[in-house]
Amino acid sequence: MPNGSHWPKISIVTPSLNQGVFIEETIRSVLLQGYPDLEYIIIDGGSKDHSIEIIRKYENWLAYWVSEPDEGQAHAINKGFKRASGRLVAWLNSDDSYLPQTLSCIANVFSSHPEIEMIYGDIYLIDAESAHLRLLTSHDFDKEKGIRLTFVPQPASFWRTILFEKVGHLNESYHYIFDLEYWVRVSLICRMMYIKSPLANFRVHEKAKTQAYQISTTLEGLLLYKRLFSDPRTPKHILKFKRDELRHWYERLGLNYVDEGLRAKACLSFVKSILTQPWRPRSLILAARIFDTLFATHLAERKSFWRKLKKLFSHGTQEDLAHGTSFCSKMKGH
Asked: 144 and 212 in contact (C-beta within 8 Å)?
């Protein structure tokens, strides 16, 4: 390193399933970093396309790879993490890629800031043909100003492996927002640092999981924050964000329903968003959206909406998703 010390080993895990169209670009972006102490692990979920043929082309430069059925993306990533031996770690999905010199940049920042346990930067959005769409910038995280960490870009995130001892691994019960759930856990007890530099490419395409299943993704986000705010071990300074966070996720869910033509469900979600924080200017906008959506709704859907609305008010504004496993129980040692 520039300061004369040894480069820390960095372990990168790539989960993949039938991403033969993109995975070679991902692999090359990692191996061509030219980083002196790299451990690269690929966990394939049993791909049926030409992914395995591509992986085999590069197996001499891989620390480990396997192709076998798994229990989902988070499970595949955890399998890789449990084999990782580096001091720094990250995962890179098989449709994303690193920018040149990303790993050496990260190593230098961690070396200069031994008190920091997680680092994240900016990303470029790219399309299916790898053309740059735009730069997506992030910002510093201040736990006193909010707990919504959707601004932390997963491909540009790296952390010290000692975090696994403090917060455990990814929560495999989530299928879409396990990265967000992990960032929230990390933010509660660890120091995070934003570096204003693009580190990775995030691919936007119709087959991407969180883009193809936006309603399911938002429902998981809503469930995550309900669990967080209902857990008695959640720090008190976090609880003040409850109304704002639930309002955000209900509104986002409503917009997702509108996009899918599920207008009655959209209206109900907008109502829940208003009830969560009724005295905000935003509520007027949502009220207008409800009436606009209702007028575009078929009569049967309107009747369904009014029945659900009556039920909502008759039972109060209780959460409509089971809380399930408490949030903080995912912390290491609980």
From this structure: no
